[in-house]
Write a structure and sequence with these properties.
This protein is of the alpha/beta class. It has helices at residues 5-15, 18-25, 46-55, 57-68, 125-136, 155-169, 180-192, 196-204, 221-236, 257-263, 276-289, 296-305, 310-327, 333-339, 341-350, 353-363, 368-372, 378-394, 399-405, 411-427, 429-443, and strands at 29-32, 39-43, 75-79, 145-148, 175-179, 208-212, 240-245, 267-270. The chain has a five-stranded parallel sheet, sandwiched between helices. A three-stranded mixed sheet has the order 1-2-3. It binds adenosine-5'-triphosphate. Adenosine-5'-triphosphate binds at residues 117-119, 124, 151-157, 213, 244, 246, 282, 310-311, 314. Oligomerizes as a right-handed, spiral filament on DNA at oriC.
Length: 444
C-alpha cells in the first residue's frame, strides 16, 4: 500500500485547497503497517492526527483502493514519525500504542529554516536580531516576540529558525510550532468533544509556543478568548511565545482590544520588503543551497523584475532551474530572459505605475490628476512622493520612466522623493502606517 501513497497524495493535492493540503496532508509520513499490508500514516502531533482522521481518512482509503486496485486496502493514522518508527516486522501482531512518552513530543518545526540560511538585509535586520536574542534567552529577552509584515517576507522562516536554535541550545526543549488555523481547528474539535481540559493541557507542557499568522483569529471570538487564556498561562509560566501577523496587530480589525494590548507587552518588529541587493543575495543563497550555478547577472535580472515577495522570487528561481534542467542548457542571462518572460509579464501587469497612482489617490481621497499635477501643496506633495517611492519599490521602471509617469518630472525629483520617504519611514509613525497599508493593498 506504501507504493500507492504518492499517487494518492497527488490526488488529494489536486482536490483540496492548497492551504488545507499543506496544513493537514503534507506533514504526514507514510509507512507500511506492522502486518505489512495496510498503510500506516504518521502525523506530527495529535492535532493533525485527529483532523486527518475526522476529515480525510475516509477519502484517503477510497483513493488507496482506487489507485492500488485492492478493494480491501486500508489505512490508519497515529502520532509518530519515520525517524522513530520501529522497522515493521513482517507478520508481527499489531500492538496497541502506549501514550506518547515525553521524548515523543513533536515540535512541527521545519529544520530547513535556520539563521544560517536566512539572508540578512536592512529590511529584516532588526527582526532577525530580535528572533536570535529570543532564541538565546527564551522567556527572558522579549515575551511575546511578534514579527509582522506582508506575505512572503520571511516571518515563518525566522520563527522556525528561532525554534530550531532554542532546541539546538537546549536539547529536549519543547518548542511547538502551530499555524493559527491548527490552533483554531483543534479548539473547535475539543469544544465539540467536550475535551477542552485536554486541549488546554497540551500547552502546559510546552516551553515555547510559536504561532503563525494570528490575523487568522480576527472575528473568531471564541478562539481569541481561548488563545487569550493560553497566552496568559504561558506568559505567567515564563514560557516563550513567538507570533507572526501579516500587519501590525493594532491594525487587524476583529482582534479584541485586550488581546492586542497583551501582544504589545513584548516586542513587535516589522519585516520590510527586501531591497534589490537583498533580493539578489537571497536568490544566490537559495541557488547555492540547491547546488545550482546561478550567475550574478541572472540573480540581478530576477531580483529586478519579480517584485519583493521572496516566495515569488523563489518561484521564479524554481521555474528557471526546472526549464534549464529539461532543456539541458546552462542558466545564462539570455536563457533566463526567455524562460521567465511570462512570469515577468504577469508581475509587471500586476503592479503598474498607473495602478499605484490609483491606489494612492484613492487612499488619500485625491484624484490621480492631482498626483500628476504641478501643484506642490503639502496635501499633494507627500502622497505624490509616496506614490513615486512605491513605483520605485514595486515596479522595474527606471527613475526617468517614473518621472515621466508622474506628469513629466525630472528623475532627480523622483530620487529626492524616494530618499525623503525612506528617511521619514523610520521616524514618522503616521506615514509608516499609511505606507504599510498602501503596500499591502498593492501587493496582496
Ligand atoms: N531573508 C531571507 N533569506 C532567505 N530566505 C528567505 C528570506 N526571506 C524569506 N525567505 C524565504 O521566502 C519564503 C517565504 O518566507 P516565509 O514563509 O517565512 O514568509 P512569511 O513572511 O511567513 O509569509 P506568510 O505571511 O505568507 O506566511 C521561504 O521559503 C523563506 O525561506
Amino acid at each position: 500500500m506504501l507504493a500507492a501513497w504518492p499517487l494518492c497524495l497527488s490526488h488529494l493535492e489536486s482536490e483540496l485547497p492548497p492551504e488545507e493540503f499543506i496544513t493537514w496532508l503534507k506533514p504526514l509520513q507514510a509507512n507500511a503497517s506492522e502486518s505489512g499490508g495496510d498503510l500506516l500514516l504518521y502525523a506530527p502531533n495529535a492535532f493533525v492526527m485527529d483532523m486527518v482522521r475526522a476529515r480525510y481518512l475516509a477519502r484517503i482509503i477510497e483513493l488507496l483502493r482506487l489507485v492500488s486496485g485492492h478493494e480491501a486496502a486500508a489505512a490508519r493514522i497515529e502520532v509518530g514519525s519515520l525517524a522513530r518508527a520501529p522497522a515493521p516486522a513482517r507478520g508481527a501482531r499489531a500492538k496497541g500504542r502506549a501514550a506518547a512518552p515525553e521524548e515523543d513530543f513533536v515540535t512541527q518545526l521545519d529544520h530547513a529554516y535556520t539563521f544560517d540560511n536566512f539572508v540578512e538585509g536592512r529590511s529584516n535586520q532588526i527582526a532577525r536580531s530580535a528572533a536570535w536574542q529570543v532564541a538565546q534567552n527564551p522567556g527572558q529577552a522579549y515575551n511575546p516576540l511578534l514579527l509582522y509584515g506582508t506575505t512572503g517576507l520571511g516571518k515563518t522562516h525566522l520563527m522556525h529558525a528561532a525554534g530550531n536554535l532554542m532546541r539546538a541550545n537546549r536539547p529536549g526543549m519543547k518548542v511547538l510550532y502551530l499555524r493559527s488555523e491548527q490552533f483554531f481547528s483543534a479548539m473547535m474539535k475539543a469544544l465539540n468533544e467536550k475535551s477542552m481540559d485536554q486541549f488546554k493541557r497540551q500547552f502546559q507542557r510546552v516551553d515555547a509556543l510559536l504561532l503563525d499568522d494570528i490575523q487568522f483569529f480576527a472575528g473568531k471570538d471564541r478562539t481569541q478568548e481561548e488563545f487569550f487564556h493560553t497566552f496568559n498561562a504561558l506568559f505567567d509560566g515564563k514560557q516563550q511565545i513567538i507570533l507572526t501577523c501579516d500587519r501590525y496587530p493594532r491594525e487587524v480589525e476583529g482582534l479584541e482590544a485586550r488581546l492586542k494590548s497583551r501582544l504589545a507587552w513584548g516586542l513587535s518588529v516589522s519585516i520590510e520588503p527586501p531591497d534589490f541587493e537583498t533580493r539578489a543575495a537571497i536568490l544566490l543563497s537559495k541557488a547555492r543551497a540547491r547546488g545550482v550555478e546561478l550567475p550574478d547577472e541572472v540573480a540581478y535580472l530576477i531580483a529586478k523584475n519579480i517584485g519583493t515577495n521572496v516566495r515569488d522570487l523563489e518561484g521564479a528561481l524554481n521555474t528557471l532551474v526546472a526549464r534549464a534542467h529539461f532543456a539541458g542548457e546552462p542558466i545564462t542571462t539570455a536563457f533566463a530572459q526567455e524562460a521567465l518572460r511570462d512570469v515577468v509579464r504577469v508581475h509587471k501587469q500586476a503592479i503598474s505605475i498607473g495602478n499605484i497612482q490609483k491606489v494612492v489617490a484613492d487612499y488619500y481621497q485625491l484624484r490621480v490628476a492631482d498626483l500628476l499635477s504641478k501643484r506642490r501643496t503639502r496635501t499633494l506633495a507627500r502622497p505624490r512622493q509616496i506614490a513615486m517611492t512605491l513605483a520605485k519599490e514595486l515596479t522595474s521602471h527606471s527613475l526617468p520612466e517614473i518621472g515621466d509617469g508622474f506628469g513629466g518630472r525630472d528623475h532627480t525629483t523622483v530620487l529626492h522623493a524616494c530618499r525623503q520617504i525612506r528617511k521619514l519611514l523610520d521616524t514618522d509613525g503616521v506615514l509608516r502606517e499609511d505606507w504599510d497599508k498602501l503596500f499591502r493593498k498593492l501587493t496582496e
